[in-house]
Write a structure and sequence with these properties.
Distance between the termini: 46 Å
CATH superfamily of the largest domain: Spore Coat Polysaccharide Biosynthesis Protein SpsA, Chain A
CATH class of the largest domain: Alpha Beta
Domain Glycosyltransferase 2-like: 8-148
Strand content: 15-25%
Largest sheet: 7 strands, mixed
Keywords: Transferase
Number of strands: 13
Radius of gyration: 20 Å
GO molecular function, one term: transferase activity
CATH architecture of the largest domain: Alpha-Beta Complex
Low-confidence stretches: 282-287
Helix content: 40-55%
Shape: globular
Mean pLDDT: 89
Protein name: Glycosyl transferase family 2
Structural class: alpha/beta
Strand order of the largest sheet: 3-2-1-4-9-6-12
InterPro entries: Glyco_trans_2-like, Nucleotide-diphossugar_trans
Length: 306
């Protein structure tokens, strides 16, 4: 099937362990760019073996802060972005061609569902799946804010975004973590490089503890993912508390931490009915799409006010 020319972009930093698999799944792309942040391992040698154009970048705390600069270098009208620990299935070329041919006139970007793995186990429960990511888009229609885990923005409006609904559609495969040790290390890296709100009057440690309770409630799915889901839920609850302490330390002046008082107060901030509602809606993709759209619109409104 004929398709428009596509530039594939892979972001790397000391990614020799996973890069070959990512690039092998993109051999069919018309242009292949590896945007590398000062790798000291064999990342660039591997990229060269796959014929990639290597774009050297200065180290940065977040890849999101450089995505726009790299996408602007793309030659072709459509762009497909992967991280170095992601890959596509063997039929990706035909799936991309069919997607653009069938819906490219109505949509500028596609949010692809993603399989997330911890070790060899794919996590099936919400919110790990379908975990749609905006990765296939028309050049110039998507921008990324310089922040961790913040949704990219559509320059042509969210009505031009299509979220693919599984099963039977193109997926990204993502090796999130080699094991739980890797999970802890990387979550700590994210927390240390996070940009925290610098307004002391907006800080409430109870919000972070409430987030920890929320992670415990929403991430556990032993019926679908076994004990691993409970281990991950505990680690993400720990992560929420760690971020609260780091946020507090970054403030000047520092408000009262109120850590002891936050625990019983925060436990009431995620009522059981809300947990049930979110689990129920998360299992139903049309509702999930509506909630995500509302969240993105809220993020945009907050960014304009900030």
């Amino acid at each position: 099937m004929d398709r428009p020319a596509i530039t594939a972009i892979v972001h790397t930093r000391d990614s020799a362990e996973t890069l070959a698999k990512a690039l092998a799944s993109l051999r069919w792309a018309d242009e292949l760019i590896v945007a590398d942040m000062d790798s000291r391992d064999e990342t660039r040698e591997i990229a060269g073996r796959y014929g990639a154009r290597i774009v050297p970048l200065e180290p940065a705390p977040r890849v999101d802060g450089v995505r726009d600069r790299v996408t602007a270098m793309a030659v072709h009208p459509w762009i497909l972005v992967l991280d170095s620990d992601e890959w596509l299935a063997e039929d990706a070329e035909s799936a991309v061609a069919a997607l653009i041919a069938d819906q490219g006139d109505r949509f500028d970007a596609f949010a692809l569902p993603r399989f997330n793995y911890v070790g060899e186990q794919w996590l099936r429960a919400q919110p790990w799946y379908p975990d749609n990511q905006i990765r296939l888009f028309r050049r110039g229609t998507v921008t990324w804010p310089d922040a961790i885990h913040v949704s990219p923005r559509m320059t042509t409006g969210w009505q031009r975004l299509k979220e693919l609904q599984p099963p039977g559609c193109l997926h990204i495969h993502h090796r999130n973590y080699r094991d739980l040790r890797d999970f802890v290390r990387r979550q700590l890296d994210y927390a240390l490089s996070e940009t925290y709100d610098d307004r002391p009057e907006r800080f409430d440690f109870g919000d972070h503890v409430a987030k920890a309770y929320e992670q415990l409630a929403l991430r556990q799915a032993p019926d679908r993912d076994g004990d691993l889901s409970q281990a991950v839920a505990l680690l993400l609850a720990w992560d929420a508390v760690v971020r609260g302490v780091l946020h507090w330390e970054s403030l000047d002046p520092r408000p009262p931490l109120g850590a002891i008082q936050a625990l019983p107060i925060a436990s009431c901030r995620v009522p059981r009915w809300l947990v049930f509602l979110r689990r129920w809606s998360g299992a139903r993709l049309p509702w999930l799409f509506l909630f995500r759209t509302a969240r993105r619109m809220t993020d945009e409104w907050r960014n304009r006010r900030a």
